[in-house]
Design goal:
Elements lengths: L5 E5 L2 H23 L2 E5 L6 H8 L11 E5 L1 E3 L9 H8 L20 H15 L12 E5 L23 E6 L4 E6 L1 H5 L3 E6 L5 H9 L16 E7 L16
Parallel strand pairs: 1-9, 2-3, 2-5, 5-8, 8-9
Antiparallel strand pairs: 4-7, 6-7
The structure holds 6-phosphogluconic acid.
C-alpha cells in the first residue's frame, strides 16, 4: 500500500536545498549503518544543483562518501562533457568535489547509441544489485525534479517509455526534443525506499497543483507511488504559491 506523500514547504529555495541535503545525509547514514552502503539515483535538470553544491560544501559533516553509490535517473543523449549532460552537472556541483571513489559513480554512457546505452545501464543495474530476471533494484533514495509538463526523470507525457513495466532502463524517444533520452523506468522508481521530489520556483506552481490535486490529469509524476517506501515533496514557497489546500506552508 503506497504511503501518503510527505509534503514540506520552505520559505526559500536555499532552505529547500538545505533540508534536502540533511535528508540525504540522514538516509545515507542509516543505510550505511544497516546495509553497509547507500545507493542513490541522482536527478538531472537545474533544480538539484543547489542541493549537490551544499552537500559538496560539507554543510552536513560525517557523510561516508566511500560507501555511497551514485546512479542517474536519466540522461540526455549527449556526451558527458556536453553542457546539457546531467552527469556533467552533478560532477561539477558535487561528485568531483567529494571523496567518492570513481568506481562508485555509475553514469549513463549516453555518448553512444541510445538503445545501447540503455541496455548497458540495465546490465549495470542488474549486476550491481544482483538481480534475477523480472526483479527490480531497490534504491535507498531516488531524487526527482518536476518538469513543466508533469514529467519526471525522462518519462514525458505521451511517450512510450511511460508504460514500460519490465525494463529497468530504456531509450525513450521524446518528440518535442526530436531526441532520445535514456531513463530509468517507472517500476524502478516505485521500488525505491524513498523518492524525493525537489520543486522550486513560481513557474512550477501550476503544474505542482495539478499533480497534487487533479486526479484526472494523469500526469507522469502522478504515477510515482513507491510500493513500499516514502514519497517526499520538498517544495519552496514559489512553487507552492498555487494556493492548493495540500500546499499549506509547514513550520519548515
Ligand atoms: C532532466 C531531468 C528532468 C528534470 C525536470 C525538471 O534530465 O531534465 O531529469 O526530469 O528533473 O525537467 O527540470 P528543472 O529542475 O530544470 O526544472
Amino acid at each position: 500500500m503506497a504511503a501518503e506523500p510527505e509534503i514540506r514547504i520552505f520559505k526559500t529555495s536555499a532552505e529547500l536545498f538545505q533540508a534536502a541535503a540533511i535528508e540525504f545525509a540522514t538516509l545515507a547514514s542509516a543505510a550505511v549503518r544497516n546495509n553497509g552502503k547507500f545507493c542513490v539515483a541522482l536527478s538531472g535538470g537545474s533544480t538539484p544543483r543547489g542541493m549537490y553544491s551544499l552537500l559538496a560544501s560539507g554543510i552536513v559533516p560525517a557523510i561516508s562518501w566511500e560507501k555511497i553509490y551514485f546512479f542517474f535517473g536519466d540522461e540526455r543523449h549527449v556526451p558527458p562533457d556536453h553542457p546539457d549532460s546531467n552527469y556533467r552537472m552533478a560532477n561539477e556541483a558535487m561528485l568531483s568535489k567529494v571523496p567518492v571513489p570513481s568506481e562508485n559513480v555509475f553514469r549513463i554512457r549516453s555518448e553512444q547509441d541510445a538503445e545501447k546505452a540503455a541496455l548497458e545501464y540495465e546490465q549495470t543495474l542488474q549486476k550491481f544489485f544482483h538481480l534475477r530476471a523480472n526483479e527490480f533494484p531497490r534504491f535507498d533514495l531516488v531524487l526527482l525534479g518536476l518538469g513543466p509538463d508533469g514529467h519526471m526523470a525522462s518519462l514525458f507525457p505521451g511517450t512510450s517509455g511511460l508504460n514500460e513495466t519490465r525494463r529497468l532502463a530504456i531509450a525513450n524517444w521524446v518528440e518535442k526534443f526530436k531526441s532520445y533520452r535514456i531513463t530509468m523506468t517507472l517500476p524502478v522508481l516505485n521500488h525505491a525506499a524513498c523518492v524525493m521530489f525537489l520543486v522550486s520556483g513560481a513557474d512550477k506552481a501550476g503544474i505542482l497543483r495539478e499533480v497534487l490535486e487533479d486526479q484526472d490529469a494523469d500526469l507522469p509524476s502522478q504515477r510515482v507511488h513507491p510500493e513500499n517506501g516514502r514519497l517526499v515533496w520538498l517544495v519552496d514557497r514559489g512553487a507552492a504559491a498555487s494556493g492548493s489546500h495540500r500546499l499549506i506552508p509547514s513550520q519548515g
